[in-house]
């Protein structure tokens, strides 16, 4: 897609220089996925894919042995499809992490969906790493011991956890209501919320047993409910958590920035925000290109965006001719000479 749009731009302005940055907003798109596999393969040319099934969803582990790095995309593998019981076990993720540890992997990027299937608030993950059988009503002492053993099992492995956007209703307390708003049966949401309340309280107390300052560093854990509660578990396992796009690396200088994405609805991608903030510091425009969006032009200034275009939809998602025509149109409208 980037190549086609670039070719179109250069057909109108052949002397311009274009830098194309491959990035993912982290949402899973039907028949396409999230695109994170392509990003990982670009960053790690020796990347190999290993299919895992086990006791969880079918998923692909992407591994670079030379850089001792790996990526697990759970947004692509386990995004909650709606209208179904999201409960399950996250123990498969413990098995994956221990498998990677045995391979000598020292850095793992895990991408979580906001709402996930195989949800158990991370009990299966914590049980699998600590080898302690846990339940929603496990005591504070048992959970404290499990957190300690789980961290020890990971050794020096660094975990980097991303997610596409915050929950509409933050934290574990809002997770069941977020599910309900998204179509989950209210009675089932109520049952899940009852389990969450006891577990979340005891987990917070267990974390403070080990470190009284651990939870004080983030008074509002906006990410704790993502991945069906895995965000909170990973935080307690000392993972680094970020909105995907937070660390997007951009060309330091440009005359225009063009952000291309599939859809933009209520949740604005962090990557677009980063681009808009950087462009504003340079005093240059930002143009948004999207296949699907409910934004109207009057809303663009509030996002730091100066133009909005639609991706072509002829026959195939990435229609080459239409993309090249779009690139030429962008160049004719936004290109200029000083």
From TrEMBL:
The GO annotation for biological process reads:
organic acid phosphorylation
Q: Mind telling me which Gene3D superfamilies this protein's record contains?
A: Glycerate kinase, domain 2 (3.90.1510.10)
What does the record give under GO molecular function? glycerate kinase activity
Q: Origin, by domain of life? A: Bacteria
Matches recorded under InterPro entries: Glyc_kinase_flavodox-like_fold (IPR018193)
Q: What is this protein called?
A: Glycerate kinase
């Amino acid at each position: 897609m980037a190549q086609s749009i670039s070719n179109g731009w250069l057909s109108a302005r052949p002397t311009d220089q274009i830098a194309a940055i491959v990035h993912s907003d982290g949402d899973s798109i039907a028949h396409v996925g999230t695109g994170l596999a392509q990003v990982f393969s670009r960053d790690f040319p020796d990347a190999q894919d290993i299919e895992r099934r086990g006791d969880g969803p079918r998923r692909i582990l992407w591994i670079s042995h030379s850089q001792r790095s790996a990526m697990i995309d759970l947004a692509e593998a386990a995004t909650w499809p709606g209208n179904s019981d999201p409960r399950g076990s996250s123990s498969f993720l413990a098995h994956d992490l221990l498998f990677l540890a045995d391979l000598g992997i020292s850095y793992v990027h895990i991408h979580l969906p906001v709402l996930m299937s195989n949800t158990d608030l991370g009990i299966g993950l914590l049980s699998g790493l600590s080898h302690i059988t846990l339940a929603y009503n496990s005591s504070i002492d048992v959970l404290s011991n499990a957190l300690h053993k789980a961290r020890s099992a990971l050794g020096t492995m660094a975990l980097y956890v991303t997610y596409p956007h915050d929950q509409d209703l933050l934290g574990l307390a809002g997770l069941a209501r977020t599910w309900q708003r998204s179509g989950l049966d209210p009675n089932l949401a109520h049952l899940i919320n009852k389990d969450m309340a006891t577990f979340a309280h005891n987990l917070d107390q267990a974390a403070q047993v080990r470190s009284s300052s651990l939870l004080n560093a983030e008074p509002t854990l906006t990410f704790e409910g993502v991945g069906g509660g895995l965000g909170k578990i990973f935080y307690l396992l000392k993972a680094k958590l970020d909105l995907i796009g937070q660390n997007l690396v951009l060309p330091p200088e440009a005359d225009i920035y063009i952000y291309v994405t599939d859809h933009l609805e209520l949740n604005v991608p962090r990557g677009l925000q980063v681009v808009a903030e950087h462009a504003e510091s340079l005093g240059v425009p930002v143009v948004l290109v999207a296949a699907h969006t409910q934004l109207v032009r009057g809303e663009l200034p509030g996002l730091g965006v100066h133009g909005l275009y639609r991706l072509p939809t002829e026959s195939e998602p990435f229609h080459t001719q239409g993309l090249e025509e779009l690139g030429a149109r962008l160049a004719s409208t936004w290109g200029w000479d000083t």
